[in-house]
Write a structure and sequence with these properties.
The chain is α/β, with parallel strands linked by helices and 243 residues long. It has helices at residues 18-27, 85-98, 117-137, 152-158, 177-181, 202-212, 226-241; strands at residues 3-5, 8-9, 13-17, 35-39, 45-53, 57-66, 76-81, 102-106, 145-146, 164-168, 190-194, 215-217.
Length: 243
């Protein structure tokens, strides 16, 4: 059954507009009488029938509401040092499938790609779309939020104060990530901070330790590419706190 992000929810009815409407009409060529599933990013899912297709909207009658348990119990965020375009896209897509709650693109000292102004806004919008598509594909009912491209201080302000911060760092030789995970509180958000292709400058590690209370952790004895490290860290964390 095809899934759509609801634009507006009413009583026993919802509407799809813009890209969702166009996808339903032009790509999937669905028609009145066809059944679909709508979700509105609040955790609910609606089984519905298309009743009207107009130029700018599709109207659907809700037949059944459900609350599938597909979202992770603990909110796990990824803070990803800006890496080249396609790598960020890959991480956003896979991270969404795995169940991350959101991603903050971080302007790290060694980020090769630097995004500013209008370009940064457009890129974040594109990444949000990728998260939306991946959320649909993986049958999630809440699309992860892709935050604005941020510097360190903005990252700190973006997440709740009680967030538990971990910073995978290849020079950390003793503290293994899985051991640290066991000591976290599953009722509080977890944020994983991954460096860009060039890794973190040590001053960034110490800033995160001092200002965020971040714990540096090891993902093992081998050096992983930035995008591999992001997905490995998310997988380990969500294997612990994801169900
Ligand atoms: N130069 C490679 C690349 O092109 O992607 C490797 C970059 S690695 C230094 C990037 C980030 O991955 C690091 O900042 C760190 O967050 C994480 N990372 C990679 N291997 C790791 C390990 N064994 N333990 C902890 N973190 C690791």
């Amino acid at each position: 059954m095809h899934r759509f992000k609801i634009t507006e929810l009413g009583e026993n009815v919802f509407w799809l507009r813009e890209t969702e409407r166009d996808h339903l009409v032009r790509v999937l060529r669905l028609a009145p009488g066809d059944d679909i599933i709508g979700f509105d990013n609040t955790g609910a899912e609606y089984y519905a029938t298309i009743i009207k297709i107009e130029d700018k909207s599709v109207t659907c009658r809700i037949l059944e509401e459900s609350h599938p348990e597909v979202e992770a119990e603990t909110n796990v965020y990824l803070i990803a040092g800006l890496s080249k375009g396609e790598k960020m896209e890959w991480v956003i897509q896979k991270g969404t499938e795995l169940g991350m709650s959101g991603l903050i693109p971080l302007r790290a000292k060694r980020s090769v790609m630097q995004l500013e102004g209008r370009k940064a806004i457009e890129r974040a919008e594109r990444w949000q779309k990728i998260a939306g598509e991946a959320a649909k594909q993986s049958h999630r009912v809440q699309e992860p939020q892709v935050f604005a491209v941020s510097d360190w201080a903005e990252v700190q302000r973006a997440l709740p104060q009680e967030t538990q911060w971990l910073i995978p760092y290849e020079e950390e030789k003793t503290r293994r990530m899985r051991t640290v995970l066991a000591s976290l509180d599953s009722s509080l958000p977890i944020a994983l901070i991954i460096g860009p292709e060039g890794g973190f400058d040590y001053s960034e590690i110490s800033w995160a330790q001092e200002h965020l209370g971040a714990k540096s952790v090891s993902l093992g004895s081998r050096i992983l590419r930035a995008e591999t490290a992001a997905i490995a860290a998310l997988t380990i964390t969500l294997a612990y706190y994801g169900d």
